[in-house]
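dumping this here before i forget
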Amino acid sequence: MPYHTFYALKQLGVAALYALLLYAGELYFKDRAIVGYFEPASGLALAVLLIGGKRYAWGVCIGALLVNATSANSLWASATIVFGDTFQAFCGAWLLTRKGKFDVRLESLHDYLRLLLLGGCLSIAIGALAVNTVLLYSGLLASEDYFYSLIQWWMGDTLGAIPVDYALVGARKKSAQNGGDGRGSLNARPDDFSLPHNFS
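structure:
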């Protein structure tokens, strides 16, 4: 299989899985507000960027676009939320890896705390602040609802991100400990899925 085709399929897989989790979060954990109370998709987005690389931000963006394009939000609100979803995941991955002090295998308590504080709390706070401020100044969010929406975005995405991140990154660590290379399917090569010569 050509590399570019294989890479595109992986991006589409990330987009589909992200869209599914985002849709489920909005279906079961959302009231009439713009954002929900629990967003597991935010955890998937960060884990994908940590394991597969920042290039998979495109998959996150496409997945967020698929869900928000079919929502009742206005075009500008949807575009802002798509940007915020992608930006906060990218921001989290950058904060964690920028100085090379984070081991995605979570080998120490220091790595766990960095994932919690930088990848979860801080990056999502930055995303929540950016999105809600844009919505406020564009007139799509009332001033009296600003802080409520800000806290709800931060709380919902943080509650969704932390357990999903620990689960996915922890599964990668376990795979490596059991004799795998720890790369995961996001970093797999087309040859990894080819049939043995006696079957081709």
